[in-house]
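Researcher: Here's a chain I'd like modeled. Treat it as a single chain, no partners, no ligands.
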Amino acid sequence: METKRKNYNTTLKIDLIKKLKILSAETDVRQNDLLEEAIQDLLEKYKKAPKKT
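Model: Modeled as a single isolated chain. Structure tokens:
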């Protein structure tokens, strides 16, 4: 089963875009896949620990 997708537009620093393109070419991984991985990592980093009661 394929995950549903939706367009999401934003602006990025030019140097980040260049680095992303280079990484994508070097690893043969789509830029979108790299961005999704980075967002998942960021969400995990900022995940709040369960509140203690």
